[in-house]
UniProtKB/TrEMBL annotation:
PANTHER family: CRISPR-ASSOCIATED EXONUCLEASE CAS4 (PTHR37168:SF1). The lineage of its organism: Bacteria, Bacillati, Actinomycetota, Actinomycetes, Kitasatosporales. Signal peptide: none annotated. InterPro entries: Dna2/Cas4_DUF83, PDDEXK-like_dom_sf. Pfam families: Cas_Cas4. It comes from the Bacteria. This is CRISPR-associated protein. Transmembrane segments: none annotated. It comes from Wenjunlia vitaminophila (Streptomyces vitaminophilus). Residues 16-170 form the DUF83 domain.
């Protein structure tokens, strides 16, 4: 295998997508970190972008470089919108990652809220010592996967349904 095109060498280069991919499929994170981006043409990704853009249209993204937070309200509460109908541990991990990035920039963060407009639900994400430790552990795991010389094993095929990396992992099978 050729040398990776880009390594995430510091925490500031890791965004929420990196965390989401780590928890969904470490192989997906490994490929993404090397510049493989089939999700750009994926219908599910496009749908998620439309849901995000039309749900809270008066809010403005908070751009932290690689990480883009949907919005932060007064009192430093991180808000993230998901097009999923099913809450996922990866969603909360992504919000905790954003809280960690903001805290490292000197912001006193109170927590986060995940919005699921398709099912009209929200989920609170606490920000405390336990959440901070969890975010740091997840960040370390992401670095381990990214810096590995070979891709992690692929998931069982059923776990790949709808994944834009499906052709890369299963194209020859």
């Amino acid at each position: 295998m050729t040398e990776p095109r880009c390594h995430a060498t510091d925490d500031a280069t890791l965004g929420g997508v990196h965390i989401k991919y780590l928890l969904h499929c470490p192989r997906q994170l490994w490929l993404y970190s090397r510049g493989y981006r089939p999700e750009q043409g994926n219908e599910l990704v496009a749908f998620g972008e439309v849901v995000d853009a039309t749900t809270h249209s008066r809010r403005r993204d908070v751009d932290l470089g690689e990480a883009k937070i949907d919005w932060v309200t007064t009192g430093a509460v991180v808000h993230e919108t998901k097009s999923s109908r099913t809450p996922s541990p990866a969603h909360a991990a992504q919000v905790r990652h954003y809280c960690l990035l903001l805290e490292r920039r000197g912001v006193t963060v109170r927590g986060g809220v995940i919005h699921y407009p398709l099912i009209r639900r929200t989920t609170d994400v606490p920000w405390d010592a336990e959440a901070r430790a969890e975010a740091q552990t997840t960040l370390s795991r992401a670095h381990q996967v990214i810096n590995s010389g070979s891709p992690p094993p692929r998931l069982p095929r059923g776990g790949c349904r709808g994944c834009s990396y499906n052709d890369y992992c299963w194209g020859g099978d």
